[in-house]
Amino acid sequence: MAAIAAAATAFSTLHLSRTSIILPRRHLRTVITSSLSSTDINIKFAPPKHKPQLQKSSPLASASAESEPADPVYIPWIVSDENGNVKLQSTPSERFLRAIAHESTQKKKKKDDRSSVGKAKPGVPTAEPKYSKAARRFYNERFREPPQRLAKVLAAAGVASRRSCEELIFQGKVTVNGSVCNTPQTRVDPAQDIIYVNGSRLAKKLPPKVYLALNKPKGYICSAGEKETKSALSLFDDFMKTWNKRNPGTPKPRLFTVGRLDVNTTGLIIVTNDGEFANKVSHPSSNLSKEYIATISGAVSKRQLLAIGEGTVVEGVHCIPDLVELLPRQPDISRARIRIVVHEGRNHEVRELVKNAGLQIHSLKRVRIGGFRLPSDLGLGKHQELKAASLRALGWKS
Fold this sequence. Notes:
The protein is of the alpha+beta class. It has helices at 2-12, 59-66, 94-105, 133-142, 150-156, 162-170, 237-241, 243-246, 275-282, 302-310, 349-356, 388-393; strands at 20-23, 42-45, 77-80, 86-89, 148-149, 174-176, 179-180, 187-188, 195-197, 200-201, 211-216, 220-221, 230-231, 256-258, 265-272, 290-296, 312-314, 317-319, 323-327, 336-342, 361-369, 372-373, 383-385.
């Protein structure tokens, strides 16, 4: 307060010295004397902006012209030196300049979280749900998959085959929500129920349905098989190894073949993890025809073709083929080939038909199931994914 009072006193006692200072009415314009020790300063106010017109011969006009400032305008700063004495200068103090420079580059400090304890924080804006709650409830009630049998869920999750899963349930190795379950028909929902098998929890999310067409080579069987026998499922080892990269966070499917081809028969076989689809395709009630190309050792007569068409008894049932046709000779194939179409697909049915006619099969290949034909560019041991059109050709409408 003393410094401010001293500065006010200095301004009130100012009188004309070496330099004059002109202060306009709209703002103060001041020129500080070069000598800081002297306070002899004269202050005059500039005339108003819109001043009255004066005659050139008037002494007031000449005085006004002489009082117009021609020098730069300065702003006075009232500062105190190291000894605490108040003084005026044309530039701000060095301490003030450093403070301004520091303030312009310093980041704003975050408020202490402790000061906001008990205050409600503004909610983080989230994306608006794509569907309303009523629409989601409508979908869950009408289209969401209902609870399924426990054995079926375990088989779909890749634990084992349906029959092996039933055995695990009977042995008390499966628990549902903390209780041992001995009934394979128990309805469960993996997304809500906690299921453990041999101490390992079942994934909440079941693997997606997989449908593959395989061109099976000779020497592979269509089951897990023994250690000394090669399984057709071993041809999918690379497919299963790269599953996690292609489907992150999704359990691996348990693949199995739809129907069977004997170890010496090549060609088309379907591989999937969908039990309902497999039962639909392989069951005789589906009436899906299956086409085979049998390469015969030796000549084929018309009488032998008629014998094949008359059918034979297989597993106690008289089986008659839908079509028997001798294919024309090809330059690169010296042996005769017979096209045989059956619909029952009993075990070794085609081989029994040819054998009953007195012929010997050199090789047998399946080329078609229902409306789906083995792609000509699919090499032995290779597979491809079945699209929706191919599934419809196999009679699957789901």
